[in-house]
Amino acid sequence: MAIIKWTFWITLWLLVAAFLHYTLPQVDIVRITDTYEKRIDDDSIFWADTTQAVDGSAVNRDVFFIQTRRAKGDVMVYRNEDTGWGWPPYFKFDTSNLQAEAADVRSASGTPQYVALKHYGWRNEFLSIYPNAVSLKPVAGPEVGKGLPWLNILILTLLAALVYAIWVRWRRFRRARIDPRMEAIEDNLAERRGRFARWREERRHRRNL
Predict the structure, then answer these.
(1) Which of 65, 70, 153, 204 sits a CA distance of 20 to 30 A from 137?
(2) Each residue's pLDDT tens digit in the chain (209 positions)?
(3) Does residue 17 lie in a domain region?
């Protein structure tokens, strides 16, 4: 039971950590190399727009992409989709404006212009998953710090406070309601086992007479 219990809680917290890592905003210092538009028909949950046709198939749509290169040289591609009123709640409606800003700060390796690009999500080449760009702003260079993620700190603090409050109330409820009942059940079972043992012993004694 202990192994099952720890496996359950470890799996649960790993899923929570993965959800938060995907959803919370992150900042990359990158150089934009190109912007383009591509027609896709993927209805994966990792896309902001998962509209489907009447027959259940994905609806073809055009999606903006932003190609970048980080200071260390590795390439990163971002999608540029509106989140609208959906999840995650970034309330992003300025996809076209962001694409225009990204196109305006494109630069070559000889004359690099770096930007701080805020995004959420993951990049996975095998599953064709792209992080979604949320905003960008030009920065002096690749050595510029990303700054403290105040929003992430606030959200994680509030989440930790909520989890702690629920845990405290659950402990109080368990001590007041569940533990006494469990102890009563255990005492009842122990008493029944004792009665059965005494009955069996008396029966064995009678047979020996």
Answers:
(1) 153
(2) 778 889 998 999 999 999 999 999 999 999 999 999 999 877 678 888 755 555 555 568 899 999 999 988 899 999 999 998 988 899 999 999 999 999 999 999 899 999 999 999 999 999 889 999 999 999 999 989 888 999 999 999 999 999 999 999 988 888 888 778 877 787 778 778 877 777 777 777 777 66
(3) no
Please report whether residue 7 resides in a domain.
no
Quick check: is 16 in a domain?
no
66 burial via Cβ count (<10 Å: 0-12, 13-18, 19+) = buried
The boundaries of the domain holding residue 90 are 25-147
Alpha-helical (H) ranges within the chain are 2-23, 95-104, 150-173, 179-208
Number of domains in the chain: 2
